[in-house]
Amino acid sequence: MIVLGIDPGTAITGYGVVAGEPHGAPRLIECGVIRTPPHEPLPTRLLGIHQTIADLIARHHPDAVAIEDIFYAKNVRTTVVLGHARGVAMLAAEQAGIAVHEYPPATVKKSVCGTGNATKIQVQFMVTQLLRLKQAPQPADAADGVAAALAHLMGVHLERIARQAPRR
Questions:
Q1: Which end of the chain is more exposed for a tag (fewer CB within 10 A), N or C?
Q2: Spatial contact of 138 and 56, defined as CB atoms under 8 Å apart
Q3: pTM for the whole thing?
């Protein structure tokens, strides 16, 4: 299974493409960030995010997209603009016919770090350990995208184990 994980944002969107097999260690295929120029109008920035996500999907043919849900910032505008970035990423996946799975940031952190209050540094460290990388994905937004993909893969793996367990 190949999963595209996305940590959405209008300035920086982190992404990670991870492959995982039921009985093997997950493997990082690609990760990075999509940066949009702050002086550009919002619609132009959203188009750039959409096109880059669509290109990632066309290049890697993921089986699923895992995207971080909105965190509710103190600034309402920040929350709304973040929703726009999520929307264009989800649109790209839907246009390609790929299932989108949404995860709250605390769930992603808990899946990879064991606590929903993990820092970005802790997420980077655990992503590095889980994927047996020589160095942490940079910047932290890229590691967050990878963490979203790993959270989905771990959830799928646990579902398979639960289905195979004998019923009492």
A1: C
A2: no
A3: 0.90
